[in-house]
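Quick look at the format.
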Amino acid sequence: MARITKAEALKIAKKLEAVIKPGGAHDLAQIHHEGKRIAQFGIRRGSNQDAPHEYIAGQINLSKPECDKMARCLVSRDDWIAQMKAKGHIADDPPAAEPPPSQPEPPQKSPRRRRKPR
């Protein structure tokens, strides 16, 4: 298995349609699905293009061989989303919303009668 380099990290970010947020030592690649951020990983900003990015696999919930396959374009975003659902990292599509159960109205209290003084 080859090391994940900066170029491959950028390929993975592009494939997963990540939004890149500039940072200090790392840019942050944030991956969203259905409006929610589901994963993120850092991409080193240094000039060393061969610097390893081995931590990415764990941050996107893949094994190192799976991450290598993604870097080599053998896994699509849809495949990755399906894997995340299978692993329980993303909830399956929610069922149609059901109306909340109706609450029975509390019984009406009858007015109290006052006792006459004796």
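Next, a different chain entirely:
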Amino acid sequence: MGNAPQLPTSTLKPVTKPYTRLSNTSNSWLRHIIEELQNRQFRCGDLVLRYASQPREQSKLSHKWEGPYRVKKVVGQSTYELEELDGKAVPRTWHASKLCKYYV
């Protein structure tokens, strides 16, 4: 019992956290995505699509975006009220991270 096998210390590697092992490429990609989300702003009258948190169909190929909608009002720094194209108001406010620009 007193003679437990010993591991050689030269083969042990220091434990690092997963996020410290990211390559420079993935760090720059992540920075690009964060900057894009932070700079996403819309004006009144812009046409946008909203993210469908619960798609009507539950399949892999169902649409992930709904719309188009028109930005009715800018409520906060990145919060918007939407309306349908016929003028009917869409309930609740929407954050810019859940919206994307719609190009005609």
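The chain is about 15% helix and 30% strand.

See the schema section for token definitions.
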